[in-house]
């Protein structure tokens, strides 16, 4: 994906008859080595040729380039810049190149040069008219945006699948009590539904970031030429329409040179990868403690220890976050300090985005599958829900609700926790609280609160049920949250479908226009 330095079509260049004849003669007699067709002989070889070339890596945008070429040629014909019959020949040649595939392209610095050379091979010098009124600078920017839209939609679809899996888990486990942790220490009891909903909320924001990034990707840079526009009467809105872009990047210098849309997308994907890493870590820890059993499809065994069931897939999901963060850093460093307009450094920018979108989307799909097929061990979760005096906060809240200053209540419960940590004690939780209250208050616990109420507060199930503040883990409250969650998920599914349908409609429109010439 390189810039066009020899001829960008933006200076009113039209080949003369003599040049056309000479080019045709060379194509007919040189045995197919056409390095000079686009760049000219002086810039065709040398020891850095392979270093400059991005042709192999450009396979990813091969189809995008063909579509961008088609839209541009249709527009040139509609504007009377290229004759209809020449446009038809070029478009027919592009169809043939698509059938033959990327692997059949002649050698070149990039896919754009190779496709143009392939067209010239098929129809002669008139094939060079396809590049009138554009540069490879705006061409490659359009191709990147065209392909990235599809990749981002696929990544969004993966986040929706994960949200669906988390929502289904939450719906099935609104009353499944589990231990909750801070600092990986038992903290307060909660439910599997509350835990799953917390991740669904985070992934929902990841979806929103990707949808927002998509809107800024979905603008056409075509017509910017090298960066200073063109003397030809091009219709930028028409090419945008034919390619399914919602509008154009207005400033031609910005259109040709900016890659902030790449950085924004990679950052959004990195953020999602960080969410995935936390989810993976939780499930790995829960599996270690016997709280959840992963499907064999998302596990592996040891090569030497046959009893092992390892959460390998989730370990790799966890690792993707580091890779994504590295790609953000690499892309940021590449873009840092680049002057306007085009610089060859940009050829090294896109691989960071491609790698990130592929790996994060795959990791998201794997996480969705692991969550959807996991089996939660209700009995083990319930047995551990009250571990570590995890209902202590509920007791402190109860004491405060009965008139004690919260700090005094906190002191009583903290003293009780210290008593319970003593290996020699055989006190129950209630006995420890009563003893601590006698010491701190110098009066019996029952003078402040009903002992049955304390016992209820110590029960993990009752503790969870009492936490019915907005967003809390009480089953009724979680069920209320889930209704809104389903609505949000449906809305985002519709948003994805609408964008995908718009791209397909544009593709069909462009195909119909092309068919009018071929």
Structural summary, described in words:
- The chain is mainly alpha-helical and 518 residues long.
- 63% of the residues lie in helices and 4% in strands.
- It contains 20 helices and 6 strands.
- A two-stranded antiparallel ribbon has the order 1-2.
- α4 (62-78) packs across α9 (236-242), α7 (136-172) packs antiparallel against α20 and α15 packs antiparallel against α18 (451-458).
- The longest helix has 41 residues, at 475-515.
- The chain is elongated and about 100 Å long.
- It starts with 16 loop residues before the first helix and ends with a helix.
Concise synopsis of the structure shown:
With 518 residues, this protein is mostly helical.
Indicate the topology.
Layout: H1 17-29, H2 36-39, H3 49-52, H4 62-78, H5 84-100, H6 111-123, H7 136-172, E1 177-182, E2 185-191, H8 192-217, E3 219-220, H9 236-242, E4 247-248, H10 252-257, H11 260-288, E5 292-293, H12 312-335, H13 350-373, E6 375-376, H14 378-385, H15 392-401, H16 406-421, H17 429-441, H18 451-458, H19 460-466, H20 475-515
Parallel strand pairs: 3-4
Antiparallel strand pairs: 1-2, 5-6
Measured between the Cα atoms of the first and last residue, the distance is 28 Å
**Overall 3D form:** elongated
The radius of gyration is 32 Å
What proportion of the residues form beta strands (DSSP E)? under 5%
Total DSSP helices: 20
Helix content estimate: 55-70%
Order of helices and strands: HHHHHHHEEHEHEHHEHHEHHHHHHH
Segments where pLDDT lies below 50 for 5+ residues? 3-36
What structural category arises from helix and sheet content?
Answer: mainly alpha
**Oligomeric state:** single chain
Please give the order of strands in the largest beta sheet.
Answer: 1-2
Q: Kindly state the mean pLDDT as a whole number?
A: 87
Q: What's the count of strands?
A: 6
The profile of the biggest β sheet is: 2 strands, antiparallel
């Amino acid at each position: 994906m390189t810039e066009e330095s020899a001829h960008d079509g933006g200076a009113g260049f039209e080949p003369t008859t003599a040049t056309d004849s000479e080019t045709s003669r060379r194509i007919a007699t040189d045995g197919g080595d056409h390095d000079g067709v686009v760049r000219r002989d002086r810039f065709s070889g040398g020891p850095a040729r392979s270093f400059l070339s991005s042709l192999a890596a450009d396979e990813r945008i091969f189809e995008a380039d063909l579509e961008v070429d088609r839209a541009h040629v249709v527009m040139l014909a509609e504007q009377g810049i290229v004759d209809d019959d020449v446009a038809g020949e070029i478009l027919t040649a592009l169809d043939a190149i698509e059938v033959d595939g990327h692997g059949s392209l002649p050698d070149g610095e990039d896919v754009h040069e190779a496709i143009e050379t392939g067209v010239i091979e098929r129809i002669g010098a008139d094939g060079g008219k396809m590049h009138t009124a554009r540069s490879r600078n705006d061409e490659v920017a359009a191709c990147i945006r065209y392909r990235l839209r599809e990749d981002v939609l696929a990544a969004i679809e993966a986040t929706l699948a994960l949200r669906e899996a988390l929502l289904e888990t939450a719906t099935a486990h609104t009353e499944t009590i589990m231990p909750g942790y801070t600092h990986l220490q038992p903290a307060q009891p909660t439910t599997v539904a509350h835990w799953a909903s917390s991740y669904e909320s985070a992934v929902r924001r990841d979806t929103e970031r990707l949808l927002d990034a998509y809107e800024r990707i979905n603008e056409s840079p075509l017509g910017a030429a090298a960066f200073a526009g063109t003397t030809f009467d091009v219709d930028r809105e028409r090419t945008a329409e034919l390619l399914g872009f919602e509008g154009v990047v207005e400033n031609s210098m910005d259109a040709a040179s900016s890659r902030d849309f790449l950085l924004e997308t990679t950052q959004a994907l990195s953020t999602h990868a960080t969410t995935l890493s936390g989810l993976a870590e939780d499930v790995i820890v829960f599996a270690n403690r016997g709280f959840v059993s992963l499907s064999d499809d998302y596990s592996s065994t040891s090569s030497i220890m046959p009893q092992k069931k390892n959460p390998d897939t989730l370990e790799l999901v966890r690792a993707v976050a580091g890779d994504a963060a590295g790609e953000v850093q690499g892309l940021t460093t590449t873009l840092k300090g680049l002057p306007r307009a085009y610089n060859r450094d940009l050829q090294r920018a896109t691989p960071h985005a491609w790698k990130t979108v592929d790996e994060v989307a795959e990791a998201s799909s794997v996480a969705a599958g692991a969550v959807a097929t996991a089996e939660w061990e209700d009995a083990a979760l319930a047995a551990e829900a009250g571990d570590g005096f995890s209902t202590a906060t509920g007791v402190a809240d109860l004491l405060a609700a009965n008139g004690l200053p919260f700090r005094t209540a906190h002191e009583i419960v903290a003293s009780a926790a210290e008593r319970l940590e003593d290996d020699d004690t055989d006190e129950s939780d209630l006995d420890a609280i009563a003893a601590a209250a006698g010491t701190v208050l110098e009066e019996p616990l029952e003078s402040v609160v009903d002992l049955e109420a304390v016992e209820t507060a110590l029960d993990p199930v009752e503790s969870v049920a009492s936490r019915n503040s907005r967003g809390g883990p009480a089953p009724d409250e979680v069920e209320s949250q889930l209704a809104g969650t389903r609505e949000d998920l449906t809305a985002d599914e519709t948003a994805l479908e609408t964008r995908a349908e718009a791209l397909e409609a544009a593709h069909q429109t462009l195909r119909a226009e092309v068919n009018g010439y071929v």
